[in-house]
Q: What sequence folds into this?
């Protein structure tokens, strides 16, 4: 048996003369994307709104490794170089505008360009889930989060107040402030549900990619993450108001309030898992997977 036949599949066709350009390209990429990479890791570690990236990025790398290379892979040099040039241009423009999301997205685009350059567009489609998770690991721009947070605050406040009124709790609503007898509940930006929505969208993409086979079923699961997140956050506001009114005002803050949020997130994930399981059953009934002979 020759040494070549014992080499990993991804080393097939390797030539030592490629070492110099590969090393040069790696150094250039390190210099070009050092700033967005380091600031992204810093935000993952220090910003609670971006902490899910610490899980998503390693998971994306593991999924790509598990999926491996496509047997039908074929390099597409022209398209790969085009994507790489677009990534470099985007990195330059993002640097001029000091816009972190654009800077960080350019890294993902560059990795996509390298994938197409080395193994073709088919490999990029094979790795769609890892790339989607990497994209979701990048925090949204502040302009977007600020635009989303306020409507979510109002929605959670309105639904929570309606649930409290349904349980015969005397309540008035003023924007994102729920007025109880002798007390006020402020639905702050941190309680808007934006964080849980981002986490549930990531879980929806992951669950759909791992459990489901058709794009329609995956889109249904992904689409349901939004109403599930909104309803669960409204229930959290309702429970907080209910406990504050009937039990103890201290239950609306601190560790107990945080624990309540985590428990409801687990419930939301269970609901999402149940939807994905039902969609998988429907998939198998309508289009069962072929059985190998």
A:
């Amino acid at each position: 048996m020759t040494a070549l036949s014992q080499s990993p599949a991804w080393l097939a066709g390797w030539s030592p003369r490629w070492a110099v350009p590969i090393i040069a390209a790696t150094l250039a990429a390190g210099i070009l994307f050092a700033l967005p990479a380091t600031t992204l890791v810093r935000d993952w570690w220090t910003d609670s709104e971006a902490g899910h990236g610490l899980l998503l990025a390693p998971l994306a790398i593991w999924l790509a490794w598990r999926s491996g290379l496509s047997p039908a892979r074929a390099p597409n040099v022209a398209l790969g170089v085009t994507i790489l040039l677009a990534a470099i241009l985007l990195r330059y423009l993002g640097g001029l505008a000091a816009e972190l999301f654009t800077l960080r997205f350019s890294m993902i685009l560059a990795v996509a360009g390298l994938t197409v350059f080395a193994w073709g567009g088919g490999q990029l489609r094979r790795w769609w889930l890892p790339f989607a998770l990497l994209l979701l690991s990048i925090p949204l721009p502040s302009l977007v989060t600020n635009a989303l947070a306020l409507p979510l605050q109002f929605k959670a406040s309105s639904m929570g107040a309606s649930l409290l009124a349904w349980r015969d709790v005397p309540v008035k609503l003023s924007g994102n402030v729920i007025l109880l007898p002798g007390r006020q509940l402020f639905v702050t930006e941190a309680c808007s549900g934006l964080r849980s929505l981002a986490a549930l969208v990531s879980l929806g993409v992951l669950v759909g990619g791992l459990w489901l086979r058709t794009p329609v079923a995956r889109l249904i699961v992904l689409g349901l993450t939004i109403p599930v997140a909104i309803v669960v956050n409204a229930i959290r506001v309702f429970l907080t108001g209910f406990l504050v009114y009937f039990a103890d005002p201290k239950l609306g803050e601190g560790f107990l309030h945080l624990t309540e949020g985590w428990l409801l997130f687990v419930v939301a994930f269970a609901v999402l898992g149940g939807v994905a399981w039902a969609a998988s059953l429907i998939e198998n009934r309508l289009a069962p997977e072929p059985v190998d002979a």
Observations:
- Confidence is low (pLDDT under 50) at residues 1-5.
- The beta strands are 172-174, 177-180, 183-186.
- DSSP finds eleven helices and three strands in the chain.
